[in-house]
């Protein structure tokens, strides 16, 4: 029949389990008249039945075992190469500070010196020749 293309789409919907009730009735009516479409529907039903016969439904214990292995794998997965920890900025920072305990005092010193320089610069006192603060820093560096 010339309408078989339209009904082929309905057969695909039938196989997928998403066919509308009205379309199912139209397909049944068409299959009564069209042997080719009737054979297609039978072929899909036989194929579906063969798949069910070949692969048994897993038991609940098998599903639980697989779920447990997947969850364990997720929990034990290492972060990919190239990422520090892959768990978030604050956790990575915390881990970095645990690995390098001198990072906190060094960071505080950098912030303190930057604050002093910014404060002196904003008051017009920084960077002058003979500045006692700069002399003191030069003596510390020497």
UniProtKB/TrEMBL annotation:
For this UniProt record, the keywords arranged alphabetically read as follows: Membrane, Transmembrane, Transmembrane helix
Q: Out of the domains of life, which is the source?
A: Bacteria
Residue ranges of the TM segments = 99-118
Protein name as it appears in the record? Zinc-finger domain-containing protein
> Which organism is the protein's source?
Eiseniibacteriota bacterium
